Amino acid sequence: MIEERERIAAALPGYELGARLGRGAFGLVLAGRHRGLGRDVAVKVLPVDQDGATERSWNEARLLASLDHPHIVRVYDAVAAEDLHLIVMELLAGGPLSRRRDLTGETACAVGLAVAAALSYAHGRGVLHRDIKPANILFDAAGLPKVADFGIAKIAEGSATTASTVIGTPVYMAPEQILGGRLSAATDLYALGVMLYELLTGNPPFDPALPAPALIHHHLHVLPPPPGGVPAQVAAVVMRTLAKDPADRHPSAHAFALDLARAATDTYGPGWTSRAGIALRLDDDVRAAANQPTTPAPASTIPATLPAPTDIREPPAPARQPSDVGAPAPPSTAAFTKLPTQRADPPPPNLTPAIPPTAREEADRPRTRPKRRLALVSAAALLAIAGTVLAFTLIPGDDPPPTSSPTPAPTSPASTSALPPLGSPLTGHTSSVYSVAFAPDGRTLASASGNPDNTVRLWDVSDRFAPRPLGSPIAADSARSVAFAPDGRTLAAGSFNSPVRLWDISDRSAPRPLGYLPTSHPIASRSVAFAPDGRIVASGTRDGTVWLWDVSDPSAPRLLGSPLTGHADQVNSVVFAPDGRTLASASYDGTVRLWDVSDPSAPRPLGSPLTGHTGAVESVAFAPDGRTLASASYDHTVRLWDVSDPSAPRPLGSPLTGHTDPVYSVVFAPDGRTLASGGADNIVRLWDVSDRSAPRPLASSRTGHTEEVYSVAFAPDGRTLASSGADHTVRLWQIG
């Protein structure tokens, strides 16, 4: 360090060097003082170029030098001497926002206005920040907040830009940023909304301690609750910034600032900015809005929850979930180049469970097909990145190649006459395989087989062309359904004859039994599903009830409330909506029911049962956006339901016909545009459901199964479909 200081001093002869202020992924920071001007400065010492770090920091220097705004940190000089790169910027002695505690509502809103002012200025000059968070908001000695660390900022081209290297902090990243899609001012506003939520409540909308895949899933699909204890008008402004679709957020940082200023003034009264203890430099109209109350909006106009998400409109990659493929990234930065019948008596064994939520934890693909394919990298590396910076790298280049004609759309399932198989069938089960499910990382597949096999098997499907068994078969009495927890560490299986059973599969090659979910009497749980947060398990039973368990500690699960009653016959399928607030169940009684499980200890029915099928309903699945439900029936059809308002569901379009026998399983693809179904006609069929009111069949083919298909499941990347059936096999199929 002594030698390094000497080199720095030699490169900056006009400055005196002081104490070390900090060290991070983007370099060492020293205090300094300009000898002639007597001006205190901070000297940022960039690391020797590694993974583009120096280039990013020089980019920061160039950007900051071009920006002149009171709420943006100023750069005074940049020096390069051999392999030493230095940036001299103003010293912000007040420290970062992340160190401040017990902020008042006024203070939090004032910070929001300051950051919005900085972003409005930067966006007006075509610069996106991409990493707004408390640690990057610093205060000078007078209490003026300034946005710092433009090291990962990007020059925007027009109104939006595609990230060639998408980096940010996972807790604050917008869906389109996670997916490597088109970025805009709305991307920074999402991060600002997350930060404000945290400042107002003490916690961000999604728990940073969640495993990385679960955290990413929440950003992509889960609607956060309104910030608790925050006045409704302020909460409504914050919640708008957290919309999944960028188009549903404020059109600009300036529009956000006006909205927040008015809401805060109506809430805290005129003069609130002076009580906030924050120095502000605001545009005249924003300052006026912060001092002049408006007529409060009627409570009915203030949204209680985040608007339901729609497809991300700009083109990310088709995959959402990360995969455990490739070498892990360094701990401080993680490379992430784009991770669910007519009645027979006794019931026939050709039943399939609900596709568990984890098999649907994928990103919405936009309505515009992606122009570039992204490579997969280690999800294991993601487990260490909560609160760190993620790096995503696009392949093959930064931008699509120039063309004088429209870019042709990638091949879709409709363009093929048959689903191409991947490798050989997975064999080993000695009886019908009733259920298949992918783990959240996409590298493991689980399959469940009934009597006389009575096992659950795990398969390593990292190489889709050469899947292989993992460990020994897991003993599971008459297994009928299987589901992974969102963190991938727990496996649940339902049974024809016994309660739900859990296993710890942290070591996939050596699963450890955790016992049965406790019940007051032996009960056969035919279907099982985890809630998106992994803390609740639902099961449907042969006696027509649905049960909920708290599995926060999977080694000590406990029953929640009383069983849900209403079905007149056995429950074949249960599935949680992506937001975890609604549960759907399907029954031999020919109906589908919806349940409000926002308070799992006191669930309640929602609306009337969904009727229309003329036979038993075997499977239900939610679309990734949570607005559509699909159901499969013994009447040979699949139906779609609009459940945007789960208390008033309604049918969408006509039933999907084509199967010539009972349909046992249905599941949406990660992009929400394709539906897969499998049935007793030995066929897996695909449906284009881009227009949910007018679905249409895509190419269908015999999958190779020689008997009934009981279960279908999409991999998290959406490019592989798994199916299982009465021929004792599991098959993998290439979709895209």
Structure description:
This protein is α+β, with helices and mostly antiparallel strands. The chain has 10 helices and 43 strands. 15% of the residues lie in helices and 31% in strands. The longest helix has 20 residues.
How is the topology of this model organized?
Elements: H1 2-11, E1 15-24, E2 27-34, E3 40-46, H2 53-66, E4 75-81, E5 84-90, E6 95-96, H3 105-124, E7 127-128, E8 137-139, E9 145-147, E10 154-155, E11 161-162, E12 165-168, H4 175-178, E13 182-183, H5 185-201, H6 212-221, H7 232-241, H8 253-268, H9 272-275, H10 284-289, E14 333-335, E15 389-393, E16 433-438, E17 444-449, E18 455-460, E19 468-475, E20 479-484, E21 490-495, E22 501-504, E23 512-516, E24 525-530, E25 536-541, E26 546-550, E27 558-564, E28 571-576, E29 582-587, E30 592-596, E31 604-610, E32 617-622, E33 628-633, E34 638-642, E35 650-656, E36 663-668, E37 674-679, E38 683-688, E39 696-697, E40 701-702, E41 709-714, E42 720-725, E43 730-734
Parallel strand pairs: 14-15
Antiparallel strand pairs: 1-2, 2-3, 3-5, 4-5, 6-8, 7-10, 8-9, 11-13, 12-15, 16-17, 17-18, 18-19, 20-21, 21-22, 22-23, 24-25, 25-26, 26-27, 28-29, 29-30, 30-31, 32-33, 33-34, 34-35, 36-37, 37-38, 38-39, 38-40, 41-42, 42-43
